[in-house]
Structure prediction request, 70 residues.
Amino acid sequence: MREFLGIILGVLLTVAVVYVHDSMATSTVASGSSASASRQIVNWDVANAEWVQVKDNVRTTWLKLKANNG
Prediction:
């Protein structure tokens, strides 16, 4: 159980760190004259579109399973 919790915590921490990095890379404060060239790690528009598709697929599968079980 601890291992599973550690995996979930690790994934959440990784996503949080990447999100913070990307938000700093595209902020107006970070893009001043003294800022170094930094690019986003994740294309968040594509990630959002994929997440919406995953949720729709899970919902569709759940409804099919629910319909088959009566």
